[in-house]
Amino acid sequence: MKLGSLVLAWAMGGHGLVRADDHSVARAWNEANLAAIRIDFPAPTVHARNLFHTSTAMWDAWAAYDEAATGYCHNESATPQGVSVEEARREAVSHAAYRVLAHRYALSVNAPTTLAALDGLMDSLGYDRTDDSTEGPGAAAVGNRVAASILAFAGSDGSRETTLYDDPFYVPVNPPLILLQSGTSMNHPNRWQPLAFEVAMTQNGQVADKVQRFVGSHWGDVRPFALHVGEGEALYHDPGMPPQYLGEGDAAFRAGNIQVLTYSSYLDPDDGVMVDISPGAIGNNTLGQNDGTGYAVNPTTGEPYPSNWVMRGDFGRVIAEFWADGPSSETPPGHWNTLANDTVDHPLFECRFMGQGEELDPLEWDVRMYFVLNAALHDVAVATWWCKAYYDFVRPISSIRYLAQVGQSTDPSGLAYDPGGIPLVPGLIEEVDFTTTLAGNKHEHLAGQEGKIAVLAWPGEPEDPETQHSGVEWILAEDWLPYQRDTFVTPAFAGYTSGHSGFSRAAAEVLTRLTGSAFFPGGLMAYTYHQGELEFEYGPSGDVQLQWATYYDAADQAGISRLYGGIHVPADDGPGRIIGSGCGIDAWDLAVKYFEGSIVDEPFRATIGPGSPGTYQLSWPAERGLYYKIQKLSAGGTFEDLGPATQALSDVGIAVVPAGEERALFRAYKMTGP
């Protein structure tokens, strides 16, 4: 048992590291988790939580055999029984991960497949999956105890797991947008609007509700890892109100929708426009901005990054699909686990903690990486979805159609003029009139629609997506669609802020600190989309290699990809990155204290208040996994225990202490065990 520092509280008068050929068991269980995500309903919130709790199980099991490290939910000092420390850790980690995953995916969409895969992994590792005992010093029992602690800890975390993560209280203020019809009807154009489909599917092929329900609207109530509400803030990392149509930020509201339409107009590989997507030309942005111009040289080679010219229409479509839901539909939290694993597999990668010291063994590297990475991603889900529900901000499919229905706000002499409409942009957003619909003119095919707004944009999926691409064309703005499948269109939750932006920036902050460098190994990470590999339509027209110098560059591309995909406006993206940065840094700072074991040495503040008659309540912010012993100074001048050490699982620990004196001195110890 590790003993931490003390706090004095006065009461006055009742007031108060994995190689490609040498993967660890933690990597195996992480891959099993990702495989389970890929065939489950793709709720980013739920899967961020699952990844975090599974990673916590592996960390806590590993830490049980370490003298310094401290577990997050479960602490014990374990001793190997007839095996090496390394083998005991592998067995404990496996039992802990297996129990958590088997519990979490027991009711998943494809539970039989996932549970069989988990059983198969345990069998292949040579461990007895039927050994569910929590008694005794054996490694299996250690792992089972860890899993039991974590599942008990999570049972009251606010996720509503036992009722399948439902939220019976959220009611949308707008009627559904019926996708088979043009335009939209909105009671509140600044607020989220569900979509109504004829056929609805998730991006990994699961049948979805025909009328969307807000996924995760209660997630701000879920217990986080390192989050706290700042002074004067309404919620975690509060970004403030998004720009409001006909209110504060009206110009930014309209400009953001124009920006989305601009990106939609770029999705034509036949327009001949080429762009250089090399790290020498793009990236190196300021946080929350897209103002970077790349890097002069690769810091590993000392040479400039070679140019990487591709068709602009291919680039936009590739990043929209690559970042849409992970390369294999493992949701953004899973996607960043995949990228972290790919980074470790790079031939130049060295698993040196913070880039220093001797290389860690693969298991130690992995349990550290997964714990802090997924703690940060879990916090992003909590902070971002609280923001989504709190501000309930509109998605581009609704706002663009709504603005265009109102009219255009640029030309008072036009047929469709209305001060509340969308601004005109020549060559992008135009009014259809009796001149533009004349034979041979750009809007000829829109004859009969005079007085409406046309946009040059991607018109929707082609008839045969395997062999055809749609390009861009002049369409009525009230029919505009994001670059997505027509059975998906837009996720089933509000836009502000972007989850992709938050998850990605948090991961970048963690990986930068964990590896000791913002740069990928070798100064470059690349992913190639081969010709014809796109799924929404045929493309790219040639091979496209996405390249990133730093984790931050990859994260920023994930954010902006949602504008190309028509899912978010810039106001969702930039603040989302800032939230992610805060979550990533905070999670790192706290996780390191568990790595070092210094969490028990951190002084903590306690407050005294009145309790039941004849008692005080001593309250303090509680760190997970730690126990607290309260002592009171006796008349004889010695401190005496007020009962056994207790573990606080809530955000605030509370101990009831007797009063009896006008002035009394108490102290509290942090410990890793009772």
Task: Give a verbal description of the structure.
A hairpin with a 4-residue loop joins strand 11 (607-610) and strand 12 (615-621). The protein starts with a strand and ends with a strand. Strands 1, 13, 14, 15 and 17 form a 5-stranded antiparallel beta sheet that branches. A 3-stranded antiparallel beta sheet has the order 6-7-8. The longest helix has 30 residues, at 362-391. Residues 8-21 have low confidence and may be disordered. It is globular and about 100 Å long. It is an alpha+beta fold and 674 residues long. The chain has 13 helices and 17 strands.
- Give the averaged pLDDT, no decimals: 93
Shape: globular
Rg (C-alpha, Å): 27 Å
How many strands, what sense, and barrel or not for the largest sheet?
5 strands, antiparallel
Give the topology string: H per helix, E per strand. EHHHHHEEHEEHHHHEEEHEEHHEEEEEEE
Low-confidence stretches: 8-21
Q: What's the assembly state of these chains?
A: single chain
Helix content: 25-40%
- Beta content comes to 5-15%
Structural class of the helix and strand makeup?
alpha+beta
Distance between the termini: 8 Å
Counting DSSP E segments of at least 2 residues, the number of strands comes to: 17
**Structure annotation, total helices:** 13
